[in-house]
Amino acid sequence: MIVVFNTLSRKKEQIIPVQDKQIKMYTCGPTVYDYAHIGNFRAYVFEDILHRFLEYAGYHVIRVMNITDVDDKTIAGAVRENLSLNQYTQKYIDGFFQDMESLKLKKATYFPRATQHIPEMVELIKKLLAKGHAYEKAGSIYFRISSFPDYGKLSHYNFEQILSSQTDEDEYEKEQAQDFVLWKGSKDEPFFWETDIGKGRPGWHIECSAMSMKYLGETFDIHTGGIDNIFPHHENEIAQSEAATGKKFVNYWLHCAHLLVNGEKMSKSKGNFYTLRDLLGKGYNPIAIRYLLMTTHYRDPLNFTEKSLRQAENTVSHLQAFYQRVCFALKKPGMENKEIEIFIDSASKGFYDAMSDDLNISAAMSEIFKFISNINDFFEKDMISAMDAKKITKFLKKVNEVIEIIEPDIEELSEDKISLIKEREKARKEKDFKKADEIRSYLSTQGILLEDTKYGTRWIRK
RNA sequence: GGCCAGGUAGCCAAGUGGCAAGGCAGCGGUCUGCAAAAUCGCUAUUCACCGGUUCAAAUCCGGUCCUGGCCUCCA
């Protein structure tokens, strides 16, 4: 049983999919006017862990991540650089996919782009117009929130509160200041579409309703995003979608908390604004960034500092070193050790149980670290045989399908390096430590770290 | 002003009525030719603060302080 915190009810709820063993999930993706920053990636890493854990738990996940390639900022960027909208956004779309690879973010099943789904949005808007949930004013089309009594159910703002809220927008043409735009009419804007509902471009919210329902159906399981999306974006998605279909739009809404940098909101003016590229440029390990972003529970604020990133780098390299140590034992003859299986079962259960409880990753990781500590004890006594090592690597690879912290493919050493290691062992026996140290430091420059144990020398890749 | 989170060791971070997980860093021991790695031990009598309930509170209740977010650009 997997339980998640649903923003709609503000309670933890058991996930029961619309269709047995299949989860349909929508995540708000990037607006491609610039490279994504680590705050954005906190959300994407959270969604990645959710996606991967659902698969680990045996669900078939169908996931959509949209790409917003038309909005005020992308338009402004394209105009500034005198490019077409597609030319301008392509650079950032490519950048986003590169960044996803750096952080080992699993690909969604679909990455629909707003500009390629204008007809679907137009259809949805027509439906809303026909049902009286939308109206046209001066070429633009607005959603009439007074026609949707559930408005506010996700953000838990009450209707009066929303209606009385101040807005400094110059939106006098709307019936009510809080109505939001579905379609922005265009007179002399650089980018527009000619459609049945007029010349213009879509409002921000409509793409997510149109694209999610196209790929996932009118009612689907999970919708995720950052908490700042709760209002107005997700609230508006619910209004548009449920007003159009008369059906419940999404069963589980999951939102992750913000990332702070040195205790403050990240902003360009404060100079604490990091893109993933900035951090990689400083030489940080992308896997450590992934680890740091995922190890604070997704509903708690995460305070990002370079100090904690360096700590994460150490943790990640210890994990990798452990994995390599196990791999090194894959060729070691010896008896099977029954206790190993008990440790695996216990860690496996502990990991699953923790993750099932609203993705409690810290508790889940602590199971893994305790497991490692137990196994290291056996290494100390030289009691890990090939059969044991095989089981351990199998378990670690399975868990790694969720956490993606370990690099599972270890390259074999070349023949000449293996003979160098043998040569060094011989030198050590002959007390020729000068030669032994030379070989060790040479191999170190080749990225090979030697560990002399009382049972012989083993190597790991740095 | 309304709504929502958070405050646990030097740092990061679980735990939400029954002896305070785990990681990083540090110190001491073992191992080692020296290292590295590993390992053992130590590092929070106390969970922002003040009251209350209870046999028992980090956890529940009331209040206070601090930090952050949302309230129509936002992950």
SSE topology:
Layout (H helix, E strand, L loop, with lengths): L2 E4 L4 E4 L7 E6 L10 H19 L3 E6 L6 H9 L4 H18 L15 H13 L3 E4 L2 E4 L15 H6 L15 E6 L7 E3 L2 E5 L3 H11 L3 E7 L3 H16 L4 E7 L2 E3 L2 E2 L10 H6 L4 H9 L7 E3 L1 H23 L9 H19 L4 H20 L5 H18 L11 H15 L3 H13 L2 E6 L2 E6 L1
Helix pairs in contact: 1-13, 2-3, 4-6, 4-7, 6-7, 9-10, 10-13, 11-12, 11-13, 14-15
The chain binds one RNA strand of 75 nucleotides through α1, β10, α7, β13 and α10.
Could you walk me through the main structural features you see in this protein, from its secondary elements to its overall organization?
The chain has helices at 38-56, 72-80, 85-102, 118-130, 159-164, 206-216, 230-245, 276-281, 286-294, 306-328, 338-356, 361-380, 386-403, 415-429, 433-445; strands spanning 3-6, 11-14, 22-27, 60-65, 134-137, 140-143, 180-185, 193-195, 198-202, 220-226, 250-256, 259-261, 264-265, 302-304, 448-453, 456-461. By secondary structure, it is an alpha/beta fold. The protein folds into 3 domains: 3-256, Rossmann fold; 276-403, Isoleucyl-tRNA Synthetase, Domain 1 (Orthogonal Bundle), CATH 1.10.730; 415-461, no CATH class. The strands form 5 sheets. Strands 5-6-7-9-8 form a 5-stranded antiparallel beta sheet, with helices on one face. Strands 4-3-10-11 form a 4-stranded parallel beta sheet, sandwiched between helices. Strands 13-12-14 form a 3-stranded mixed beta sheet. Helix 2 packs across helix 3 (85-102), helix 4 crosses helix 6 (206-216) and helix 14 runs antiparallel to helix 15 (433-445). The longest helix is centred in the C-terminal third of the chain and has 23 residues, at 306-328. The structure holds one RNA strand of 75 nucleotides. Keywords: Aminoacyl-tRNA synthetase, ATP-binding, Cytoplasm, Ligase, Metal-binding, Nucleotide-binding, Protein biosynthesis, Zinc.
